[in-house]
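Sequence in, structure out. Go.
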Amino acid sequence: MARKTIAERIAQLDAQKKALQARQGKQERTEDTRRKVLLGALVLHRLENAADHEFSKRLGDWLRRELPGFLTRDSDKTLFADLLGHTEEKIAAPPPQETASADVSA
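Output:
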């Protein structure tokens, strides 16, 4: 069996390094997603089942203030419509604009 040249060994080590970096990146993304899911689960649990009603109210008020500015996609806003106190129609379509027409009631 022929020995590998130094250049071949360096190339092999570089490939191993890239594979390990890819695995590390995937693991970090998985952990980040898990943290977000668990944190969200805690928040929802505290909103729905908290013994401290004042804390739950303050948390809900804070979320209703902060979430609309944080969520950018309509589909994300729809996910939180119940929490924000909106119906899907209010989120999906902007409110109709008033026109400058005269009132014609009889």
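Check: The chain has a mean pLDDT of 84. The radius of gyration is 27 Å.
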